[in-house]
Amino acid sequence: MRRNLLTAAAAVAALAMFGAATAGAGEKAKLATVTVDTLPIANGLPLDLGISKGFFTAHGIDIKKVTLQSGNDIVLALSNHSGDIGYVGWVPAMIARTQGIKLSAVAASDVEGTSESDNWQNIMVKGSSSIRTAKDLAGKTIAVNALKGVGEVMIKAALKKEDVDPNSIKLLAMPFPTMRTALNNGQIDAFWAPEPFVTQALNLDGDRIVMAPGPVLGKFWPIGCYVAMNDWAKGNPALAKAFGAAINQSLAYAQAHPDEIRALLPSASQNIRLPIWSPLIDRAKLLQLAKYSKEFDVITTLPNLTQLVPSTVTGGKTLQATVGGNFIFLRLDGAKVATLPAGKYTFVVSDSSKTQSFRLIGPGVHKSTSVKGTGRSTWTLALRKGRYAFSSGGRGGLRGSFRVV
Predict the structure, then answer these.
(1) Omega of the bond prior to 196 within 30 degrees of 0, cis?
(2) Which of 212, 205, 253 is nearest to 113 (CA)?
């Protein structure tokens, strides 16, 4: 029974609350649901962070997330219309295109590091294993999450580059979460996995990294992307564009706020090596990855990269910037940068000094890391024609420059 003593003010407040709730429900109803098939790995967490930050809601999207075990599983799901967008490796995407599954990238995602020390996707062995180098992997059984996928191509290409017969190894498919147990039980000799499984193996099992395939092939090697079937993208062009904008915003935010990504992980895994997220794709490295995929019989013909990676996915290079107590440098694929063509670039800045910073100044750009702080920063910048200078912000006067033409 309603009380007769309800005041006019309370009534107005109640009506206001009802109106706000109704408006909120109306706004929620306007959101378009996008089902994203993803993987149970840390690389996909910018999607979760973007959801919690409201980036997708701001673009009119409500995300429904479905977790599968491999990129090949996700491609199959998309082709059966069980999902709208999928987070996959570039290799499964290439397999799909060459097998007549018409999908295309809607956004780039992540790249690998520069060495075993900073890479997040590696081949692991027991701490007591006799396997010490890449050459020791010959004749061994290595677990991957799927055959004819990213792992197979990366491992075989890296072994060949290290003068190891890529056909001498045996690959065994199993889900990432079961690999550590299989290694401890002696079912396999090694496994290839991303984070958080690398850090779990290092810290909980005392395992070792024996090889980082990505950095063997090249610095900042392209790995992941978000794809959609062409018919879905053509039928929902505004939605595909909105998702691309929201996930790019999520990638940039995740890269700039690593502590918020770590907070999404279990406490035992929060010290993992995070990947480098970038909205840019290095098309030259992607072509080389396609060639490796064909060489190792994962695909029978090279994919049409123009169709796989449309112009809506911005191309660009990733630069390695480093500053320490008495050194500073900027490199592209290990070579000192002297000139660059105008365009977009991702700068991965490693600052190991508490008395220096990495400062970049030029047309339209004024960026700097903290003088007292250390760690990794990532900037995606549009460089215009002109001279750019980089220097340290503390004592020592470290400096360098390059031109954009």
Answers:
(1) yes
(2) 212
Q: Which amino acid is at 391?
A: S
CATH of the domain at 398: 2.60.40.420
Q: Is the separation of the CB atoms in 159 and 152 below 8 Å?
A: no
Q: What is residue 163's DSSP assignment?
A: T
The candidate with the shortest Cα–Cα distance to 380, out of 81, 109, 153, is 109
pTM of this prediction? Answer: 0.86
48: domain range? 31-112+221-308
Tokens of 21: 């709730």
Q: Give per-residue pLDDT as tens, 230-266.
A: 999 999 999 999 999 999 999 999 998 999 999 998 8
What per-residue confidence (pLDDT) applies to 372?
A: 86
Domains contained in the chain, number:
3
- Assigned domain for 107 exists: yes
Residue type, 339: T
Residues shown for the chain? 405
Considering the domain architecture, whether residues 82 and 227 belong to the same structural domain is answered as yes
